[in-house]
Specification:
CATH topology of the largest domain: Rossmann fold
Number of domains: 2
Strand content: 15-25%
Structural class: alpha/beta
Order of helices and strands: EHEHEHEHEEHEHEHEEEHEHH
Number of strands: 12
CATH class of the largest domain: Alpha Beta
Strand order of the largest sheet: 2-1-3-5-6-4
CATH architecture of the largest domain: 3-Layer(aba) Sandwich
Helix content: 25-40%
Number of helices: 10
Shape: globular
Bound molecules: 2'-monophosphoadenosine-5'-diphosphate
C-alpha cells in the first residue's frame, strides 16, 4: 500500500518538496505519495490531526509553522535534540505512540556545505547573519561541527540573546569592520525584498564560501559576495534537497542520492 506524506505550509503552492520526494521515491523504489497541504494560519494543529486521522505516515512543516510544530510538543510528543535546540521542527513522524518531531534543516545545511560544496566546517570561522527562525535552526548543528560561530543581526540584541543561549559569539554589523570569515551564511530574509545586510568590505577571507539559505534567485548578498571575491558562492537549493533527504531517511530508513535531484532542480531554475 502507498504510504502518504505531505508538507504543510502557508503559502505552499510553490513548494518544491513534492517534486523532491517524488524523485526520492522513484530513485529508491519506495511506494510513497507526497502532497502540498495548505493550512489556515490558525489551523496548523488541526491540520496535523486531520492528516494523522487520515492515515498519513508523516509530514514536513514549512513557513510559517515550524515554531507551531515545536509548540505541539506540550502534548504527547517525542522531540529530537535538534528540535529542542531550535525550538522549531520541520519533520513529523506519525507513530502509534504519538508524533515524533525532528528538525533536519541544520544537518541539511551541513551536508550541503561539506559534501556538495566540499568545504569542511571544523575550525572554520563562520559568520551567521540573521537571528530569526532560519538562523536559530542551524546554530547548534553548526557549532557541533567544531566551527567557530559569530552571529550578527540588524536587531543586534536578538543576536546577543542567541549567542548567550548557544554559547557562541555575536556582534553588530558595525563591529564586523576589519574582520574576515571563512564561511559567511546569510540566514536573513533580506533577499526576498532584494535587499542585503550591510556587510563591510573585506568580510570574505581568501577561499571563502558565501552561502545564502534562500534559493530560486540570485540575491544581492550573492552578488556582493562575487564582487568581493568569495571563492564559492551558493544559494540554498542544496540545503533544501539535503534536509528533504534527511526527512526521507527518518521516514523510510533509506538514504536517497541527492546529487541527481539537485541537478534536476537546478535545470528547472
Ligand atoms: P526566518 O524564519 O526566515 O528567519 P524571521 O524569523 O522573520 O524569518 O527572521 C528574519 C531575519 O531576517 C531576521 O534576522 C531579520 O532581522 P531583524 O531581526 O533585525 O528583523 C532579518 N532581515 C530581514 N530583512 C532584512 C534586511 N533587509 N536586512 C537585514 N536583515 C534582515
Amino acid at each position: 500500500m502507498t504510504d502518504r506524506y505531505a508538507v504543510i505550509g502557508n503559502p505552499i503552492a510553490h513548494s518544491k518538496s513534492p517534486l523532491i520526494h517524488k524523485l526520492f521515491g522513484q530513485q529508491t523504489g519506495q511506494d510513497i505519495s507526497y502532497e502540498a497541504v495548505l493550512a489556515p494560519l490558525d489551523g496548523f494543529a488541526a491540520t496535523v490531526e486531520r492528516l494523522r486521522n487520515e492515515g498519513y505516515k508523516g509530514c514536513n512543516v514549512t513557513v510559517p509553522f515550524k515554531q507551531s510544530a515545536y509548540q505541539l510538543a506540550n502534548r504527547k510528543q517525542h522531540l529530537s535534540f535538534d528540535v529542542v535546540h531550535a525550538h522549531a521542527a520541520n519533520t513529523l513522524e506519525f507513530k502509534s505512540d504519538g508524533v515524533h518531531l525532528h528538525n533536519t534543516d541544520g544537518i541539511g545545511l551541513i551536508h550541503d556545505i561539506q559534501d556538495n560544496l566540499g568545504v569542511y566546517l571544523r575550525d572554520k570561522r563562520v559568520l551567521l547573519i540573521g537571528a530569526g527562525g532560519a538562523a536559530r535552526g542551524v546554530i547548534s548543528p553548526l557549532r557541533l561541527t567544531g566551527a567557530s560561530i559569530t552571529i550578527t543581526n540588524r536587531t543586534v540584541d536578538k543576536a546577543h540573546d542567541l549567542a548567550k543561549r548557544f554559547v557562541v559569539s555575536s556582534c553588530s554589523y558595525e563591529e564586523l569592520a576589519g574582520k574576515s570569515f571563512d564561511i559567511v551564511i546569510n540566514a536573513t530574509s533580506s533577499g526576498l525584498s532584494d535587499e542585503m545586510p550591510p556587510l563591510p568590505n573585506g568580510i570574505f577571507a581568501p577561499h571563502a564560501l558565501a552561502y545564502d539559505m534562500m534559493y530560486g534567485k540570485k540575491t544581492p548578498f550573492m552578488k556582493f559576495a562575487r564582487e568581493q571575491g568569495a571563492a564559492i558562492v551558493s544559494d540554498g537549493l542544496g540545503m533544501l534537497v539535503e534536509q528533504a533527504a534527511e526527512s526521507f531517511f527518518l521516514w523510510r530508513g533509506v538514504r536517497p542520492d541527492t546529487r541527481p535531484v539537485i541537478e534536476q532542480l537546478r535545470k528547472q531554475q
